[in-house]
Each structure stands twice: as structure tokens, then as C-alpha cells.
Amino acid sequence: MLELSRFTRVVVFTGAGMSAESGVPTYRGRGGIWQQYDYREYACEDAFQRDPGKVLDFHELRRTHVLGCAPHAGHAHLAALQRGHPALSLITQNIDGLHQRAGSAVAAELHGSLWRLRCARHGVREDAAAGRFETRRCPQCGSMLRPDITWFGDLVDEAVFGRARALIDACDLFVSIGTSAVVWPAAGLIPFAHRPRPYLVEINPEETEGSERFDAVIRAPASALAQWVA
Ligand code: NAD
Predict the structure, then answer these.
(1) Which of 66, 68, 120, 212 has its CA 20 to 30 A from that of 75?
(2) What is the pLDDT of residues 72-122, one digit of tens each?
(3) Which residue has its alpha carbon closest to ligand 1 atom 26?
């Protein structure tokens, strides 16, 4: 059993595998979203410039799908751990908002959120959790709003990454859950080479490219978190 009370500052870093048992598909592998949809038509700035309506329709489909999914026991356990350990920071690559729905505070959403839109000029606006977007146009200037998500070819949000890096630099326990750790630059956040090095734990039912560099590996699905982490 991994006991969080033995550590001072804990970072939990989650990827698509965290949401897989809720029914949100991962990106790679069997059933992955990009096997079904060509990202060049739905998830890059060029596609949005060509046909914003088509891209927004696709994201409304994703929102509707995610609203039909519920956080699982692993999300709930993580939220409970966070209540008992105030220095547990959650950093996620997921855009689905399931951690928040389970009651967790998320310190950094590295790849944005399905529940926000942004205007190039007037910044980000929250968009209520419904299938349809509340509005597709910026109320201030009338231009089309794009999902506040890091798409293929986008630069990452440096402010969000900076916040994540600061938390990771200060942690003494780093727990990676459900990420293949191959999507850069998020994968580069795993503090393998830090000095001093935090204790590194991977929770994933499958081996990943980074598995052998962790100090401990728990081969279990995210929903079983309560059996392994207290
Ligand atoms: P990935 O698809 O590359 O890898 C998923 C990982 O999850 C794999 O290593 C797999 O073995 C593991 N996994 C599968 N089922 C699991 C389970 N039940 N419990 C624990 N682990 C399980 O995803 P990634 O590493 O997160 O990188 C893909 C990028 O796309 C990231 O930005 C990711 O967050 C984003 N994405 C987000 C969502 C979402 O918001 N739910 C969905 C797909 C992809």
C-alpha cells in the first residue's frame, strides 16, 4: 500500500487511462478517438480556420459523450485522498472534467478543457456543462470561439505548464496514473532526472515506455486505486 501520509508534497499526474473505465476513449490503441476521426479535420487550428462549424460540431459530440460518462471509484478515491492530504496536487492531461465532477481540485489542465472556449482577442470563457455550446461567437467582438484545448500543432499554455512544473519540482512523491507518457511536452514533466528525485510511482494496467524508470509500478486499473493508495 502506498501511504501518502509518508510524503509532504504529492503530485498525481493523470492521462486518458484515468477516464477509460468511465467510457471516455483513450487516444491511442484500440477504440482510440483518432482511429475513428481524422484529427486533421477536427482537432487542429487549420481545420478550425477552414470550417469552424464542423470542428465545433465535433466538440459538441465529445461533450455530449463525456456528459454520458460518470466519474468512477478511482476518481472518487482521489478526491477523498485530496481532502485528507491538502498538499496533494492534481495535474491532468485530460480535457473531460471528470476529476472536477468527482470533487477534486485540479491544479493544472495541461491540454485545456472541453468546458471552455476562447477568443483570440478576448480570452477564455467558461461554457456551461451541456452538449451544445452556450454560444459559438465572442460576445465582445462576434468572432468564432474555439475550444480551449491544445490541438495537434498548437503550442502548449506556458502559464499552465509553469504552474505544473513548480508543483512537480517541489514534490517528494509523484504518482502517474493512466498515461502512456509519450505525448510531449507533457511526458517531459515526469521528473525522472530531478535532483533530489521524488519517489516515482506508475499506476497502469499495461507497461509503458517509461515503466522501468519508476521506483514502483502498480499494474492495476485506475478504478482500483483504493486498493493500492491510502
Ligand atoms: P494515451 O491514450 O496515450 O494512453 C493511455 C494510457 O492509459 C495507456 O498507457 C494505457 O495502458 C492506460 N490505461 C488504459 N486503461 C487504463 C485504466 N483502466 N487505468 C489506468 N490506465 C489505463 O493517453 P495519454 O498518455 O493521456 O496521452 C494522450 C493525450 O490525449 C493526452 O493529452 C490525454 O490526456 C489526451 N486525451 C484526453 C482524454 C480525456 O480527456 N479523457 C481522452 C483521450 C486523450
Answers:
(1) 212
(2) 999 999 999 999 998 999 999 999 999 999 999 999 999 999 999 999 999
(3) 15
